[in-house]
């Protein structure tokens, strides 16, 4: 018997990531740039919360690049994704690394219904722009958190600069991401993300952006800036 997928899952997006599942842990492949920026995104998380001994959910975990970093830092971490092929890759790599990570083919909305107020940290990086209703994802992330818990989001801005650099430059010219990774209409402005977070009971703490230098092929973190690829930390108010 076939069941319909949850309404907040875009099967076209899942199919897209199914096709590149085997590329997640190839640092020289199409997903290699995620390995480059992972230390920067991880440090942004660690600058706001010590995950050691904390219950953490990594929403849209993909192949587990960030998830493994959280586990190595001492977190009790769950990774959620909608691509079974990608989760198979993540489970296999974690097993080879000797890491105990609970990877689940489950939506964050379902987990939030089952275990509200049970987690210390939720990370949701480069995922919001791939779902039909990102506000619902943020609401579920907030629902999962204990009072005082932290949420870390990252996504891509919706403006001309993002279209030019992230999509045209990143996917078609520099080819640091597979073509078709992002749909401009689904990109999210910082004011939208802050508004959805506030409606969910999350207080915005800080923002930062990953700034790419094409000549040196390096990223740096620009604190307080909301540019093309930006991150936000939030805390659940008591």
Describe this structure as you would to a colleague.
Helix 2 crosses helix 3 (about 65-70) and helix 5 (about 110-115) runs parallel beside helix 6 (about 135-145). The chain contains eight helices and eight strands; from the N terminus they run H-H-E-H-E-H-E-H-E-H-E-H-H-E-E-E. It has helices at about 10-20, 30-50, 65-70, 85-95, 110-115, 135-145, 160-175, 190-200; strands spanning about 55-60, 75-80, 100-105, 120-125, 145-155, 200-215, 220-225, 230-235.
What would the keywords be for this entry?
single chain; 238 residues; alpha/beta; Rossmann fold; eight-stranded mixed sheet; 8 helices; 8 strands; disordered N terminus
Report the radius of gyration as a whole number of Å. 17 Å
Query: What is the CATH C level class, in words?
Result: Alpha Beta
Secondary structure tally: strands: 8
The computed structural class is alpha/beta
Helix-strand string:
HHEHEHEHEHEHHEEE
> Structurally, how many domains make up the residues?
1
Percent of residues in helices: 25-40%
- Gross morphology is globular
Largest sheet: 8 strands, mixed
- CATH topology value: Rossmann fold
| CATH 2nd-level architecture | 3-Layer(aba) Sandwich
| Overall pLDDT level | 88
Distance between the termini: 43 Å
Count of alpha/pi helices: 8
pLDDT < 50 runs, ≥5 residues: 1-5
Largest beta sheet: what is the strand line-up? 3-2-1-4-5-8-6-7
């Amino acid at each position: 018997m076939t069941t319909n997928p949850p309404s907040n899952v875009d099967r076209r997006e899942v199919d897209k990531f199914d096709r590149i599942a085997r590329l997640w842990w190839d640092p020289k492949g199409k997903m290699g740039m995620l390995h480059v920026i992972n230390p920067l995104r991880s440090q942004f998380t660690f600058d706001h919360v010590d995950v050691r001994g904390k219950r953490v959910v990594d929403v849209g975990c993909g192949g587990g690049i960030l998830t493994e970093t959280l586990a190595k830092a001492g977190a009790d971490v769950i990774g959620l994704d909608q691509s079974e092929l990608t989760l198979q890759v993540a489970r296999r790599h974690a097993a080879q690394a000797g890491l105990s990570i609970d990877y689940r083919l489950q939506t964050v909305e379902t987990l939030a219904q089952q275990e509200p107020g049970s987690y210390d940290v939720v990370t949701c990086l480069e995922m919001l722009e791939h779902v039909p209703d990102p506000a619902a994802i943020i609401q579920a992330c907030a629902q999962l958190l204990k009072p005082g818990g932290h949420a870390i989001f990252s996504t891509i801005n919706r403006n001309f600069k993002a279209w030019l650099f992230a999509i045209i430059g990143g996917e078609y010219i520099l080819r640091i991401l597979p073509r078709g990774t992002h749909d401009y209409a689904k990109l999210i402005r910082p004011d939208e993300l802050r508004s959805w977070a506030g409606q969910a009971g999350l207080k915005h703490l800080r923002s930062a952006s990953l700034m790419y230098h094409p000549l040196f092929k390096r990223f740096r973190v620009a604190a307080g800036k909301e540019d093309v690829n930006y991150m936000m930390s939030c805390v659940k108010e008591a």
